[in-house]
Amino acid sequence: MSPTCTIPYEVLFCVVNDTPYAATFQVLRVDNGLRAGPTVLLHRGESISLVLTAGQPYRYAVRQHGKEANLS
Question: Are 62 and 71 in contact (CB under 8 A)?
Fold first, then answer.
């Protein structure tokens, strides 16, 4: 068995690429939104789960085929 975290988190954010094309998902810095955090390439059917702290602001950018959507 592998170790597991036993600390309860209040928010689990799951992103699933349910499109036929690859997309990138990027965490943006909250202070100004201009500095980028890690970027994850999600192929068709892939997903990523983020454990978030409740009450903290988060911003994200999703890019696909030259289009970008910003989420907060």
Answer: yes
